[in-house]
UniProtKB/TrEMBL annotation, chains A, B, C, D:
Function per UniProt: Catalyzes the NADPH-dependent reduction of N-acetyl-5-glutamyl phosphate to yield N-acetyl-L-glutamate 5-semialdehyde.
Name of the gene: argC
Domain of life (superkingdom): Bacteria
Lineage: Bacteria, Bacillati, Actinomycetota, Actinomycetes, Glycomycetales
Domain Semialdehyde dehydrogenase NAD-binding: from-to ranges: 4-136
Enzyme Commission number: 1.2.1.38
An example Gene Ontology CC term for this record: cytoplasm
Protein name: N-acetyl-gamma-glutamyl-phosphate reductase
Catalytic residue list: 146
Enzyme class label: oxidoreductase
A biological-process GO annotation: L-arginine biosynthetic process
Keyword Endoplasmic reticulum in record: no
Pathway participation: Amino-acid biosynthesis; L-arginine biosynthesis; N(2)-acetyl-L-ornithine from L-glutamate: step 3/4
One GO molecular-function entry: N-acetyl-gamma-glutamyl-phosphate reductase activity
Length: 337, 337, 337, 337
C-alpha cells in the first residue's frame, strides 16, 4: 500500500530532508513539494543533492496543490502552520514540525512565542509512554522541537525512575548550523562559523516549556550553542540525584525506559554519544553517569537535528498515522566518518 | 532472493561503509565482517555509527569464516587481496577494492606499486561501454580507485567524442580525509587538517596508469590534494580541444555518454558539482565548459570517495554479479546539508 | 633589555605556540627549544608554520641545554615537570604549564592524578586578586589549566560579589582538538572529528579541584566536550543565585572584577563570546545573564586554549617574572574570520 | 616615526584584517576606519575579534574623514576605488586592493570587468623584479589579486628561468570562504560549505589577465574552487617543460628567484605547502617538482588569502611607500594548528 504525501515548506533544510527520506521511502510518495518564493523552480535548484527529483518543481503552498495528499507534512517557520492547517480538510492527516500546536498551556506559549496560542495537538514523540498509540490514532500531530527531542529522551527516564529531582535541571546543548535554517545571515556564514563556538538565546530558549511538559521537570536552565558542523545536536543534561545514586542506576534507568525501542540506543559502558554516529539517521544515542565532585546525574544524548530532531521523527509519526511499519524509510546507521 | 556477503577489511573506513550499505540492503546480508587486529571485537566499538550491528563482532579474515558467502567484498590495503583471493574457492565471487588486479599492463603496475603484478580481473566500472555486461558475467571483479572513478568518468566522454586530445591531460583533484584511512597519523589529525589544504604524492600518483587504461588518455599530470572534509572527491580535468569546441559540445558529449545511467548526472547549465551533493551516495555529478583564455576543455566531477569511490561501486558491482537490480541498496540522494 | 628563554616540550602544540609567540616577542629570545624524540630535528619539520625558525633544530631537554636561559617554560605532559625542575638551579625562573605544582591540597591531587603530589608553586593566573604581584615575585610559577582559566574567570566574580552560591555549580565546556595534543590517536583523526561533537572524561575532570581552589566554589559538575575546531574553549558556567539577582547584577559583577584588565573583556549587552574572536590571542571574552525559567546565573567565557589557555598565559607570567610589560608579545586581536 | 592610515571598506573581511594588522603595527595608526552602511557603528559590532578598538566607531567613507591620513588603504568592492581615489588629494598616498588600477591593457580589463578602464597604477607585488623600488617611489599602488599573488609567485620563476613554456599553463586553485566576502549569501552559509568543495567562475576568472601581465604567461586555464576553510589559498600551477627539466631544476629556479625574500619560503625537499602554515601571516610557501607521467612542471603555492593575498601585502606596500621596514607589523609565523 502506497500513500501520497505533500510537504509544506519543502525549500528549507528540514523540508529538504523530508524530501530526501521520502524519495527512498518504500511506501510514501511525494505528491507535492510546496514552497513560497521558490514555487515553480526546480527542486534540485534549491536542493542539488536530491538527484532523484530530476525535473520536478516546487508547487505553491495551497490546499489545492495538496488536495490529493493522504498526509501533509509541514516544515514551516513557527507560527505559519496554524493558518495553513485551518484551510485543509479535517480528515486530511497532518504532521506539523512547527511549534504552533505543541504546548498544552497557553501561558507557556505566550511566554516564549509571539501571537495567540493555536491549540494543542497530539505530541509527536513516540518513545514517550503511551504516545505511540496516541499518534497512531490521531489525524493531527505536533512533532517535537529539535533540542526538545534530545533533552526529553535523556531526562525523562531519570524522573520516571525517581532517581533525579525535577528541580534545577541544567541543560547545555550544541547544535549544528542547519538548525538555524537556510536564510542567508552574516552570523551563519561559513567564514564566521568554522572554528567558532558561541552561545545564543542564552537564558530563554523556547523549547524549555515543551521539555518541562514532556519530561515532568519543574525548572530548567538551558543554554544552546552553535557548533561548527552542519548537523547534529549533543545535549548534556544534569540533574540532582534524589539520594545515593550510582552510574549503574543511571544506566539501568535509561535501559529500562528504552527497552525494545528501535531508534534509541543506550550505549555500552565507556562509550559516549557522538553526533557523527547519528548523521543522516533517526537514531538517538544515550549514555549517563554520576559526577564525582557534585553527585549530579549527567546524561548526554546525540541526535541528527534534521533526522530525529526534524524530518526523521516526522516520517516516523507519518508511518504510525498511516499504519505503516514505524521504521519504514528510516535508518539507524549513521553516515560516518 | 537474498545472498550472503562476507567483507574482508571491515574495520577500515571503506569496509565500514560497505557494512553500512549492506545493513540497509534489501537483498544482501552480511555473513561475516572480517578484520585482523580487531577480530573478536564488537563492530560498533570500531564503527559506533553502525547501530544495526548491535552485539555482532568482527570475525577473522579466513576462508573458513567466509565459507558461506556467495560473494566476498575485499577492502584490504593494496597488495593483500591477491593472497586472500588465492585461498578462496574459484567459484566464490569476489569484488576487490584493492589495486591488485586492476591493471592490464604489468609494467604499469611495477612503475607505481611494490611487489609483483597479480594479474588482471574485470574492471569494475559499469558506466564504461560494455563493462556492465562484463561485470555481470564475471566471478572476479577489480573495483576502481577513488580518484580514478572521478577522473575517468569526466575524461573518457571527451576522448570518445573526439573533442579532446589524449595528450597532456591535466588533473587536479581534492579528496576528503577518509580516503587516507583510519590508521592514526599526525598529518591526519583534526588539528592539522581543519583549515588546511595541501598536496601530496605530487607528480606520481598510483591511479594514473588506471586512468590512462580506462580512459584512453596518453599522458596525464595528476595532483591530489587533501581537503578539510571527511568525504568527497572533486576532480578538475582539463584537456586540449582538438578543434573549435564549445561549452555546448562538451555538455553534449557528457550527456550522450551517460544517457540512461542511474548514478551519473550531468548537471544543468550553470550548475557545478559539489561534493556535498554526493555525500553518502553512489552518485556522480558532472559539468563542463571551455576555458576562455586557453581554449582548454574543463570538466569537473564530484563523488563521495567512500560511495562511488569505494563502497558504493563495490555494492553496485556485487548487485550486477548476483543478478540483482543494479541500484539495490544504493541511493543518488545526498545527505546534505 | 632582552632575556633568554628555553622551552621544554617544544614539539607539542602548546610548545609550538610558545615558540610562535616568542619568535615575534620584542624582548624574549629562544635560547633552546627542547624536545625528546624530536631532538636534533628541524623545528619546521614538526611546526611547518614557524617560518622564522629557518634551519634551527630542537635541542635535548637537559639542564645543560637550558643553562643560558633566564627563564624556562615547560609544556610537558602532566607529571614530568617536577622531575625536570628538580634538576634546574634554584635561581632559574620557571613557568610550568603542567599540573604538577598547581594544587595546594595533596588529597585533591591524588584524587585526580597518578603519582605523589610534587608541592605547590605560585598559581599563574594574574587576573586573580593579588596574584599579579605574587607571580612577579616568584621564581617558580604553575600556570593554569586550559578549562580552568575559562571557568575560573567566569565564576569567581559571581562568588566574590556574593550573588551566586558556591554549591552546585554546573559547567559544560567545549574545547578545540589542539587541547588533546598531537600524538596520533584514532579518535582525534580529522575524519572522526569533523562534523562530530562528543563528551569525554564525563563526571571526573582533573581541572575540577583547581577550579574550586581558585574560585572558591564548593561543588562543581563539569562536563567537557570535544568540538570540531582546532582551537578554542567555550565554557558555560551556571550557578544558583543567592537571592533576587538580575542580568544587570551579573554584568556589573563581571565588569567590576576585570576593571582595567588588558586581556579580559566583558562584552556589551547582547553580545556573547565566540571562540573565533579569541583565535591566536591571550584574550578572554565574558558575558552573563540570569536564566528565565530557573533563575540560575549563566556566564559564558571564550578563550584560545593554546593562547590564554596555555602559551599566552605562560608568556604573560614570564613577562611579569622578568619585569617586562605584561602584554609584551601578546595580542588581544583575534585572527578572524 | 608614526604615520596615520585611513581604511576605506573597513567593515569587510579584508578591511577587518587591515585593522587587525594596524592595531598591532608599531608605526602605523588608524586615523579612520571608513564604512558605508556601518558608518557610526562600533567596529567591534562588525569585527568582535578586534578587541583593541574598544569603543571606536566606523567613520563615513569621505575625503573629509580621511583628511589627516598620510596613506589611504582601500578594500572596496571592485569598481569603487577609482571614484574615491579621484576625490583624494594627489599627494595622499593610496594602496588599493581593488582591481581597478591593476591592468595595463584596457582590452584585458574590458574582457573581464564591467565599466571603463580606470588607468594603471604601480603593481603592488614587491617580490617581482624591480617592483619593490617602484612601489617605494609611488604614491598610488594597485595591490595584487589573491589568486594572482599565489599563482604569479609560483609561475614567474619558471618562465624567467626558461624551463617552462609560457603557452598552455594550467592552474587549479582553492580558496577559503573569506575570499568571497561577508555579504550573506546562501551558497556561503556554513551549512552549505562545511564538507563541500565546488568550483566557480569556471573557465573565466578575472585574475587571468593580471597573472599573464605579471608572469609573462601567454595562455592560462585557471579553475578556482571554494574550500571548506575560512582562509587560505592553495594554487597548483602546471606548465610544460621546455626541455629535459628535473625536480632539482624546478627547486633551484624557485630558490634563485626568492633568495633573500623575507616573506617567500621555498620549502625543503619533501615538504609541500599547506594553507594552515600561512594562517594569519604575510608568508608564501612554495614547492615544485616534475610530473612522472607527463613531464609537466608542477609548483604549488600557499598563502593566507586575507594575508599576503589581501591585507598583508597592502601593509607591506604601505611600509615601503612610507619608508618603514618592509616587514613592520607583519609576521611569517602562522597561527597553527
Amino acid at each position: 500500500m502506497t500513500y501520497q504525501v505533500a510537504v509544506a515548506g519543502a525549500s528549507g533544510y528540514a523540508g529538504g530532508e523530508v524530501l530526501r527520506l521520502l524519495a527512498d521511502h518504500p511506501q510514501l510518495d511525494v505528491v507535492a513539494a510546496g514552497a513560497h518564493s521558490n514555487a515553480g523552480e526546480y527542486i534540485t535548484a534549491v536542493h542539488p543533492h536530491l538527484t532523484a527529483y530530476g525535473d520536478r518543481r516546487f508547487t505553491p503552498t495551497t490546499p489545492e496543490a495538496f488536495a490529493e495528499a493522504d498526509l501533509v507534512i509541514m516544515t514551516l517557520p513557527h507560527g505559519q502552520s496554524a493558518a495553513l492547517a485551518a484551510q485543509l480538510p479535517a480528515g486530511q492527516k497532518i504532521v506539523d514540525l512547527g511549534a504552533d500546536h505543541r504546548l498544552e498551556d497557553a501561558a507557556a506559549w505566550e511566554a516564549y512565542y509571539p501571537g495567540p496560542h493555536a491549540g494543542t495537538w497530539t505530541y509527536g514523540l513516540p518513545e514517550l509512554p503511551g504516545q505511540r498509540e496516541a499518534i497512531a490514532a490521531s489525524t493531527r500531530v505536533a512533532a517535537t522541537g529539535c533540542y526538545a527531542v534530545a533533552t526529553i529522551l535523556a531526562l525523562r527516564p531519570l524522573l520516571d525512575a525517581g532517581i533525579a529531582s525535577p528541580e534545577d535541571v541544567v541543560v547545555v546543548a550544541a547544535s549544528g548550523t542547519s538548525g538555524a535554517g537556510n536564510a542567508p545571515k552574516k552570523n551563519l556564514l561559513a567564514s564566521e562559523v568554522m572554528g567558532a563556538m558561541s552561545p545564543y538565546k542564552v537564558g530563554a530558549h523556547q523549547h524549555v516549556p515543551e521539555i518541562k511538559q514532556a519530561s515532568g521537570a519543574a525548572s530548567i536552565s538551558m543554554t544552546p550553542l552553535l557548533a561548527p558542523m552542519p548537523r547534529g545536536i549533543i545535549s548534556t543534561v544534569t540533574a540532582k540525584a534524589t539520594g545515593d545514586v550510582t552510574a549503574a542506576d543511571v544506566h539501568a534507568a535509561l535501559v529500562k525506559a528504552y527497552d525494545g525501542e528501535h531508534f534509541v540506543r543506550v550505549l555500552r559502558e565507556g562509550q559516549w554519544p557522538s553526533t557523527a554516529s547519528t548523521f543522516g539517521t533517526n537514531a538517538v544515542q544515550l549514555q549517563g553517569t554520576v559526577d564525582k565532585d557534585s553527585g549530579r546525574i549527567i546524561v548526554t544524548s546525540a541526535i541528527d537535528n534534521l533526522g530525529k530532531g526534524a524530518a526523521g521523527q516526522v516520517v516516523q509519526c507519518a508511518n504510525l498515522m498511516l499504519g505503516l511499519p514505524e521504521a519504514a524509510g528510516l535508518t539507524v546507521n549513521g553516515v560516518a566518518p
